[in-house]
Each structure stands twice: as C-alpha cells, then as structure tokens.
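Hi R.,

Here's the chain you asked about this morning:
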Amino acid sequence: MQTPAPVDYARATSVEHALELLERLGPESRLIAGGHSLLPMMRIRLAQPECVIDINDLTDLDYVRVEGGELCIGAMTRHAGVLDSPVVGEHYTIFHDAERLIADPPVRNRGTVGGSFCQADPAEDLAAVGSAVKASVVLRSSQGTRTVPAREFHAGPYETVLGDAEMLTELRVPIRPGATSAYTKVKRKSGDWATAAAGAYVVLRDGVVADVGIGLTALGAPHFCAEEAEAYLVGKEPTEEHLAETGRLAAQACNPRADQRGPVEYKLHLAGELTQRVLRQSVARAEGRA
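And the predicted structure, written out as tokens:
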C-alpha cells in the first residue's frame, strides 16, 4: 500500500493568511487546492511536505475577466470553469481545446489553473498553453507582487521560480486582435498524460503571419516553447512548405526521453507533426474555415 508520510494541515482563509502561513511554516510547507498532482506524489513519497495549506476557501482567486487589454484567469479557477467560460473561448480557443483533453471531468471539476502551473510537470498541458500564448503569471508575497513571463516561470521538471513564501495568484494573456489558436494532444488512453502535445496561436495580416506562438509539452522543449520555429514563420505565408519547415524547427527544439509512451524518434516525429496540425487549425480558424 502506498501511503504518504505524516503531514500537518492548515487551512487558509484569505490570500494574506495563506502567505502568513507560508512564512511561518517555512519552505517545507505546500499549498494544496485540487491536489490531483501533489497527493499522488505524496503517496509514493516523491513529495514529503511537513505541512499542507488548504487554499480552497480563497474563492476571490476564482475568476475569468478581461482587464487592461489582457485575459485574466485567477489561480483558483477550476479547469471546468476555464472550459465553460465564453470569455476564454472568445479570445483563445486554445484553452478550450486543451481543457477538453485534460484528464477527465472529476479532475477538471477540482483541479485549478494555479495548481497546474505550479506543479511544473514536464507533460503539463496548461504549461504548454501558457508558453504558446506568451502569458505571464502574477506572483504574490508579503513583500508585494511581481509578474513573470510564463516562459520564465518553469525552471525545470517540477521546479519553478516561486520563492518559499510566494504564491501564484493570476494568469494573464495579452489580447491580440485577430488571433486564432488551437491545441492537440496524443495520449495512450483517455485521461492519460500526453505522449506529446502542441499548441499555437496565429495572427494573420494580409495573408501573412504577423505573430505566432508555439507551445510543446512532454517533449523536453526548453520552457515549453519553440522560439526558433516561431521566428522562422513570422513574415511568411502559412503555406504547407512553410508549416512543414516550422514543424521541423519545432522538433529540433525538443529533447524527449524514451519511455513507456514511445521512443525518441517517434516523439520527435510527433513534435513536428502536431506543430503543423495546430498551426493549420489556427490558420483555418482565422480564415473562417473551421
């Protein structure tokens, strides 16, 4: 039987209270909301916090709104809330595409946006989405707030730039007029982590790619993105030839590991193919064909 190590429990009643608890309880304390990533790691003792701080009462961090030209999503917003939000769908279909592929309804009903980002799993869907749309995250401590680009938030597998007494409170995405986006994923079975996944947004002007973002997950892409591939496509027509080269460059940015989900060669093939698929879908949506 897999059981977690003994752990203390505290319940935060506000953001300020959660920050005070993090400071008082020290670096071996962990915030918990949905717990779908943390609890399994605790059961096999890959994670052994001395105390978990329950933040489910922080309902003021559960929101989706447009503010200052940005789509703002509170850290306590459940995956199901993102999926059901017409505001999210209006600006970035990529979130709805990804949320439909995250686990299953029970997980989406409890798991949170903030938890997904802070777990920093190398196969995390929302990490790839955040990198694709060049989002930023708002981090708060008792000393104030700071904003970090999503592409700089993850320092490595299960590692972030969060300080010991700091918490993620919000995800912000610039609203880009005319942007269309898409996400796709290959997995072994329903509810599974990705074997490989890709997301993208595209802004077309006069038939030419004026702006683009590409996110990749489960493929060992640094910071979940493919910047060289993005730079190549800007200023070009989204022809099959150009999309194929973009896919090749995206695969070149990846460093996957062979595992039970497939060999390296297979995953690199998926990186290129899935990148092309989400770009085609984004372009088709921009042109009203999807």
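The chain has a mean pLDDT of 96.

Let me know if you need anything else.
M.
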